[in-house]
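ESCALATION

Customer reports they have been waiting on this structure for their group meeting. Please prioritize. Original submission:
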Amino acid sequence: MQIVYETMYILRPDLNDEQVEQAIAKYENLLREQGADNIQIQNRGKRRLAYEINRQRDGIYIQMNYTGPGNIIAILERSMRLSEEVIRYLTMKQEVKELQAEVVTPAA
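Update from on-call: job pushed to the front of the queue and completed.
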């Protein structure tokens, strides 16, 4: 069984495109250094927040899907917690079952 993680984080809306790309690259490189595989990143763009966070009404949503060891989450979230550009983050674990071929015997 393989463990797949999904981390969604929200960047401050006042960042320019270059700063957003730098932040994405920073967390992608951190994941690679810690042994993550199959990293997929989607920039969901600027959206309205459901409620105000740190006097911000909008945020830039970034979604990352990846596989990796369990200790990677603590390292990634610590880095995000200490960052000035990240408003919020959330990581979810998904368990993906490997497909197994079933042998079907015809009934006699």
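Sent to customer with the following note: The longest helix spans residues 17-33.
Escalation resolved.
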